[in-house]
Amino acid sequence: MKFRAPGLVHTLVLVAGACSGQIPQPPAGPSRYIEITLPRKVASERVWIRYLLAGDEFGGWVQPHPAVSSYFISTTREGRPATGIRAILYAPGCAIQTLDLPLSESNGGRFSFICRPLPEVSIPGRLTRSDRLYGRELKLQAKYVARWAQSFLGLGDETVMDIPVGDVVSLPADGRFRLSVPDLSQDPLAGTTDHPGEIQIWASAKTSGNLVALMIPAVPQAIKTRMGGLKIQSGYPSEVVFAACRLSPPQVHDARGFALRPVPGDPCEYP
Question: What are the structural domains, with CATH classification, of the chain?
Answer without folding.
Answer: 12-112 (2.60.40), 120-246 (2.60.40)
